[in-house]
Amino acid sequence: MHEEKVADKNTPYWWEAAPVRPLPSQPLAKRLDVAIVGAGYAGLSAGLVLAREGRSVAAFDAMNPGEGASSRNGGITSGSIRPDYATITRRFGEAKAIAIEAEGKIAREFLYDFIETEGIDCDFQLVGRFMGALGYDQYEKMARGAEALAKRLGIESYAVPHAEQCNYIGTDFYRGGTVRMDIGGLHPAKLHAELLRVALASGLTVHSRTPVISIEKDVSGFRVATSAGTVQARQVLVCTNGYTDGGAPFLRRRLVPVRSRIIVTEELPPELMARLMPKLMMMGENRELGFYYRPSPNGRRILLGGRDSSRGNSDPTAPTLRLRNGLIEIFPELEKVRLSYSWFGNVAMNRDMLPRIFEKDDIVYATGFCGSGVVWAPWVGTRAAYKLMGRAQDAGTAFDFRPPASIPFYSGDPWFLPAIIKGYALQDKIAWWRARR
Ligand SMILES: Cc1cc2nc3c(=O)[nH]c(=O)nc-3n(C[C@H](O)[C@H](O)[C@H](O)COP(=O)(O)OP(=O)(O)OC[C@H]3O[C@@H](n4cnc5c(N)ncnc54)[C@H](O)[C@@H]3O)c2cc1C
């Protein structure tokens, strides 16, 4: 019997309005000041600064520019850092924890300012984000966190008690939540396309479908071997994040690519949207395998994302159904909804779950965004460009420190992920049971 597809299309919704495509082929320069590996948000942001400062610079991408995470993501300008304040303080000291928290605010503002001053057309809306609490204990803890955020950084953030939740979200799934108004939503593929437009206009050369195969040091810099030939570059910046391959073996042993999948509903009636997402905010929750979700920029569909433990080119049915069940658990009214899109992309995790700029054997790396690169990748990419130019005063960032630790028995194939995801699922079940006792 012919089975109905779970989602109509298995390509990103975002590609309808901003398709990723190859660029016209460019001759390969013999010499460059800087060769950049990867043309996502990070690589392009760095290339833009370097080109504007008069450097000869080219970015190489193994796929079409943007075809990595930068045109596949949820478009939520979270700028989140996974470890909480207390954990960072314990591991790296309080000064680092304060600096990282403050940098999140600066990096978000940097992105919003870039969008405005460069006239970036990416449907950006600073609508705020609601985070749902699973139980009343979690709510109390989150409410204290919102208060601290407002006090420490002056960010408009506040708690929403269970009784008032319906003004933010049409569900009884949560026991209240918190709102912060410095987070919004944008169209990620449009952001990438616009960044590409501005970077090309500033003099950055971008070679699409041109993987970097190896990077070798020599007397005058580096020999960068690509599928289109070899380039001599004075400096090299690696921005390959969740798509890091054998071209950057040092990084590959330190980053774990983790799949994140997004589903998109069919267009919903306006009165239903108004009930489920009355303020059209970005949404999230605090579970290990929690979901992030949001309205489409035109406010007619719901997008929901979460972990995908599938591997290779396996059938998308099971991970799509897992997300669909999650959507219905939050919004039972959507039980009969049709899904129009389902796709995945790779985020990059490292052992301490912090984004990074670091240098190893004179190669600079800007990477490790742990699923929050809409804010972090443009910011960290820009800081990396200043670092390459030796402008320490502009490069200043709390993320420029030692390389992430390598992962034992790992060289790029994350064989251990399905087991870890199962473990998280169990933790979530226990946490849920405790929260609702
Ligand atoms: C489904 C999903 C949802 C997400 N949702 C959000 C969200 O809502 N908010 C948020 O802040 N973040 C989100 N993220 C994360 C965010 O998209 C990424 O952190 C960000 O796009 C990373 O940008 P980047 O430039 O570092 O890497 P990418 O955009 O992934 O680009 C890396 C590029 O490197 C190239 N490359 C790799 N190896 C080579 C080589 N040897 N030679 C040449 N090129 C190479 C790849 O082809 C790729 O294009 C999400 C990610 C996914 C996948």
From TrEMBL:
Q: Any keyword Aminoacyl-tRNA synthetase?
A: no
Q: Name one GO cellular component term.
A: cytoplasm
Output this protein's name: Oxidoreductase
Residues in a coiled coil are: none
Instruction: Read off the Pfam families from this record.
Output: DAO
Q: Which domain of life is it from?
A: Bacteria
Keywords, ordered alphabetically? Oxidoreductase
Q: Where are the transmembrane segments?
A: none
Q: What's one GO MF term for it?
A: oxidoreductase activity
Where does the FAD dependent oxidoreductase domain start and stop, copy by copy? 33-386
Does the UniProt entry include the keyword Oxidoreductase? yes
